[in-house]
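Moderator note: this is an archived Q&A kept for reference. The question asked for a predicted structure of one protein chain; the sequence and the answer are reproduced below.
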Amino acid sequence: MLDNVHQIIAGVVLLSVVGIAYGGTFLLKVARGSVPANELQQRFFRAGHAHAGVLVILGLLVLQLTQLNDVAQLWQALSLGVLAAAILMPGGFFLSVAGRDPQRPNRFIALLWTGAALLVTGLAAAGIGLVAAGTN
């Protein structure tokens, strides 16, 4: 069962899916041409939207798995990196191509790489924590 803090995190994350769904309407506008975007922006917008949806679901799954299997607090805390990645990686995709007709990503691309590092850390922590909890 989720404790109160994790329950609140899960609730907030589920509410964020409303924003992700709204982002889909933005992608439709880009696809229809009513929002001008060059090829780089179109690719990054699609990747950002896809990563947001997948990582939110993955983060919720990791949260549930670590809670239900009595994973040690350290591993649980580190595994929240998956949910942090669900914010940072899409942010990196969207913000790094903001503006009119960018030819390459700007320095906000660092958010993408920071999110990727947190994703790997979070998944490794969850995996190690689940294995350790299973051997006790």
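Archived answer notes: The mean pLDDT is 94.
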